[in-house]
Amino acid sequence: NGSTRLRGSSAARLAAWVSGGGVAIEAQHDGNVALTGQVRADSAQVAVERLTGVFAASVIDGSFEYGWGDREKPETRRLTIDLSGPRLDARAMLPQRLSLPSIIQSLAKRGEGAVAGGVPGALVIKLRTGALVTPGRVFRDVTVDLDASGQRVQLSHLIASTEDGARVALDGALTLNGK
Q: Hey, how many other C-beta atoms are within 10 angstroms of the C-beta on 144?
């Protein structure tokens, strides 16, 4: 527990190592890593608070927390990501053709083999950014508050504008059937 500083020349290598190969950042989106934060860890969770710095093409401020709960029960896991910054580059984490159905399908796939086709444990995402860079477009003035647990996805806020002037504002809940 305490302060940490992480520096490196490849966000792609770091993301691949941390995720066990689950996150692959393409070479054209790779970049330096220079992060500082306060790390807190115990037998059930690890968290980084007051996280600031640069990760590839993103300047970030925020926190993340991963709690594994009971290792034998995936439904007790919890991942919380809270990020803000002037520009967040999410191209490595999102489907090539980003759409609301593709995001929902991705959430449903996370639950395959878990609780009746739902999300294994809880996933909480909070984003605030002036520009969210995705594979297909850049969204402006983005606010996202998402809480997914089991078969339920609660979207408290999703607000964004496209470069061509369309404005999207959504809120509500979805129930995933896992089929």
A: 19
